[in-house]
Amino acid sequence: GERTNVAGSPKFAKLVKAGNYEEAVSVARQQVDNGANVIDVCMDDGLIDGVAAMTRFLQLIGSEPEIAKVPIMVDSSKWEVIEAGLKCLQGKGIVNSISLKEGETKFLEQARAILRYGAAVVVMAFDENGQAASYAEKIRICERAYRLLVDVVGFPPEDIIFDPNILTVGTGIEEHNNYAVDFIEATRWIKQNLPHAKVSGGVSNVSFSFRGNNPVREAMHSAFLYHAIKAGMDMGIVNPSMLEVYEEVDKELLVLVEDVILNRRPDSTERLVEYGEKLKTSASEGSSSLVSRPSSLASEAWRAGTVEERLSHALVKGIDQFIDTDTEEARQKYGKPLTIIEGPLMDGMRVVGDLFGAGKMFLPQVVKSARVMKKAVAYLQPYMEAEKAALIASGGVAKAQGKIIMATVKGDVHDIGKNIVGVVLACNNYEVIDLGVMISCEKILTAAKERGADIIGLSGLITPSLDEMVHNAKEMERQGFKIPLLIGGATTSAAHNAVKIAPHYSEPVIHVLDASRVIGVVSQLLNPDNKPAYVADLRAKQAKSREDFANRRERRPLLSLEEARARAERYDWAAIDIPKPSFLGTQIFRDTTVRELLDREFIDWGP
Length: 607
Description:
By secondary structure, the chain is of the alpha/beta class. It has helices spanning 10-17, 21-33, 50-61, 65-68, 79-86, 104-117, 135-153, 179-193, 214-231, 251-261, 268-283, 307-317, 323-334, 337-357, 363-393, 416-427, 441-451, 464-478, 494-501, 518-525, 531-554, 561-566, 594-599, and strands spanning 39-42, 72-75, 94-98, 120-124, 126-127, 130-131, 160-163, 198-199, 403-408, 431-434, 455-459, 485-488, 509-511. Helix content is 50%, strand content 8%. A 6-stranded parallel sheet has the order 1-2-3-4-7-8. A 5-stranded parallel sheet has the order 10-9-11-12-13, sandwiched between helices. The chain has a two-stranded antiparallel ribbon with strand order 5-6. Helix 8 packs parallel to helix 9, helix 12 (307-317) packs antiparallel against helix 13 (323-334) and helix 12 (307-317) packs across helix 14 (337-357). The radius of gyration is 28 Å and the shape is globular.
C-alpha cells in the first residue's frame, strides 16, 4: 500500500502536517482493507520532522491489530528516519531502501545495522555512477549488491528485495521507450541468477506520463504487473484501489497499453495519447476542452482564427503542419522576432503549462508541444541573427542567448525530470549545460562562473537533496552570485522553497513545478522589462508562505520551562497507602505444567 507516503498521497501528507495522526491511521487501515499485504510508510517532506513523524505514526499503528497484522515497510532516503522507524517495529519489517550510490563502505555499514534489527531490505539499483536505466546497468548493480550482502555481510538472501527501477514510459522521448522492457528482463535475470532474492518496484512510476487519466494509468499498471509477475516480480508498491483486473481491461485499451509497455511500435505513445483523449472526451461530453487533440487534421476550423489563436492552438494540440506559415504571418505583424517568442508563442506555452498542471495534458503531449515551439523558434532564428548582425554593425552590443546550468545535486542520482526540462529549454533556443547527477555544490558554482551562466537550475528527487539545495543557496550568497536559482524535483515545493531555501539567497529563488512551466519562468527572468514586476510578485508570495508556515507552527501554545514545572502534579506520598509486594525478585513455580497454565487461562492470547 502506497497511500501512507507523504510524497504519493496529498491527503496523507496534509493530515501528517496538521498533526492529525488519528485520521492518518485510517488511511493505513483503508489500505489493508483494500488488500495491501505490506504498508509502505514514508515521511520524507522538507516541512515534516521525519524522525518524529515516523516514530509517532508507527507507534499508533502498532496498537491497531487490523493494521499491525501486515508487515511495515519503513521508507525514507534519510538513514536516521529509517533507524527511528526500525526501533518502533514489533515484528519483522522491511527497509526501503539502501543503495551503493555513496560507495561500499556506507552500504555495508547500513546493511549490518538492518541485519541487527532483523529486517528485510530493499536495495535500489543505484551505484556511484547514478541510477541504472538500462538492462545491463540494472543486472550489474544488483549482482554487485547481492555479492556484498550475502558474501560479506552474511545477509539472508531471502531477505533481499531488489528494486531495479521502474521508470516512466510513454514520455515522447525515444530513449525512454524501452524502460519497462528493461525492468521486466532484469527481473527475469535476477530470479535466474541471484538465488532467493526478491524483486519489487514502485509501479505507479511507469504511468506517470498519463497523470490525470486514471483509466489509462490503471490499465498500464495491470498490464505491466501481468508481464513483470510472469518474469518473476514478487511484490510492488501500488495503490490497491488503482488496480484493474488484467482480463477485465478493455481489449482495445489493453493492446495500446501493451504496445507502450513492451515497446512494440514506434508510434505506440501517440496512439495511446489519442485513445486517452477519447476517454476524457467521453467522460466530459459537451466540454469544450482545449486539450482534445484531433486524431487527424481533417477538421481545420481553427484556421479561421487570428494568428495568435492559431499559434496557441498549434502549440496546445502539437500540430506543426502550419507553424512556419503562422509564424511568418506573426513576424509580418509584430516585426521583431523576440516579440513573437515572448508574446503569442509564450502565451500558448502558458496554456500548455496550465493544462498539464491541472492533469488535462499528458507528458508526451508537453514534449510534442515543445517540439512545435522549437520549430517556430528555428523559423525565427535567421531573422534574430540578422538583427544581431545589424546591431553589431551599428556599434551596438548583441544580447547573449540565455545560458542555463542544470544539475542533480550531490547525493541524488535521479535525472529524468531534469532531462525533460532540458529538452523543453533546448527546444526553446536556450543553451543548456547539463552537468549530470550527484554534482557537488563546488562543481556547480565553478561551472556557472566559467561558463557565464544566466541561471542555475537544481534538481532532486529525495529528501536529503533539499538540504543540499539549501547548502547551494548559502554558498551562492557567500560567493556573491547575482543570478536566479531555479529549484525543481518531486520532493520540492513552493512552500519549502519559500521557507527553507529562498531566505538564504538574496537573488530570486524560484520553485518550478514541472517542465511545462520552466519556459514561462526563464523568459520572465531574462527579460529586463518583465523581471522587476515578476520578482516583486514572487517575493510577496514567498513572504506570505513564510507567514502562513509561522502561523501554523504557533497554533500550539508553548509554555516556558518554569511554567511547565510549576504546573507539575503534586502528590502527598505520606497520605497514600502503597501496598508492599509479597516478594521481590524471581519466583519459580516447579509444580505447575504449561498445560495447566493454558487450561486455566492464565494467559490472555487476545490482541
